[in-house]
Amino acid sequence: MFDNICKFIAENFSDDLATWLLGSPLSLTVLDPTELQLDPIRADSLIFLQSEELILHTEFQTDPDSKIPFRMLDYRIRVYRRHPQKQMRQVVIYLRRSDSPLVQENTFRLGETFHSFQVIRLWEEKTPQFFHHPGLLPFAVLSNTDDPEQVLSLVSRSLETIPEKQVQSNLAAATSILAGLVLNRETIKKILRSDIMRESVIYQDILEEGREEGREEGEEKGLKKGLQAGKEEKARQIALKMLSAGFSIPEIARFTDLSPDAIEQLQRQNADDV
């Protein structure tokens, strides 16, 4: 889910992302990763934005990954093969605080081969910069602060000043999901208005994804009982995602048709797993 949220932000607020990472509001368009494909590529985790002269490659990582350095070299070569005339900036952005040495790695070495890239650890980034551009607001709560709850409150107030309701709704939903990395659901729900988030395309995508997966699972079984079981399982998956996003139990019950008791049981099971 975090990959999809970050990809949504990057593709819909590319000017804001460019201002943060490149230092200027460069106009960027999406480059389809399949253009670079030789072997299977993790397109869900990749974000390529391009101008006439430059390609910005960003990867948002929730947790450390030892394969990142080689992957950055691999993508650099793929881009060079397809666009040899263009410059390239590569940035790995770690979302969740970690003491692993892997989040410090910004080079790949193999014999005489050397490649470097930029690494950003959000928990080390200054908070005020994320309030300068609306598309960066969802990242503010993950920045360098001792009080993420207060930052989330400030983000909430900033979101309310956005005149376009759809933009406000989408950013509120993205903020809610990313805030789950540092705050509990009850705190998020207390600060962010869930009625605004319900209008977001992010929220609607979560619902539609669950419905589609439920239909496919049911169709594969070919039986009415199988279809019902598939829908119920996907309803539970949707409920878990909505709990993580801070929605209330009555709201989840209304959109999934699960009983409040069933949702409370899922909430307890999820808490035990965590």
Could you explain how this protein is built, in words?
The protein is α/β, with parallel strands linked by helices. 50% of the residues lie in helices and 12% in strands. It has eleven helices and seven strands. The protein has helices at residues 2-12, 14-22, 68-82, 148-160, 165-179, 185-191, 194-197, 201-221, 224-244, 249-256, 260-273; strands at 29-30, 47-50, 54-61, 87-94, 107-110, 113-116, 118-121. The strands form two sheets. It has a five-stranded mixed β-sheet, sandwiched between helices. Strand 3 (54-61), helix 3 and strand 4 form a beta-alpha-beta unit. Helix 8 (201-221) runs antiparallel to helix 9, helix 9 (224-244) runs antiparallel to helix 10 and helix 9 packs across helix 11 (260-273). 34% of the residues are buried. Residues 40-44 have low confidence and may be disordered.
Mean pLDDT: 83
Number of DSSP helical runs: 11
Proportion of residues in β-strands: 5-15%
Rg measurement, Å: 20 Å
Features:
11 helices, alpha/beta, 274 residues, two-stranded antiparallel ribbon
Question: What is the gist of this entry?
Answer:
With 274 residues, the chain is α/β, with parallel strands linked by helices. It is 50% helix and 12% strand.
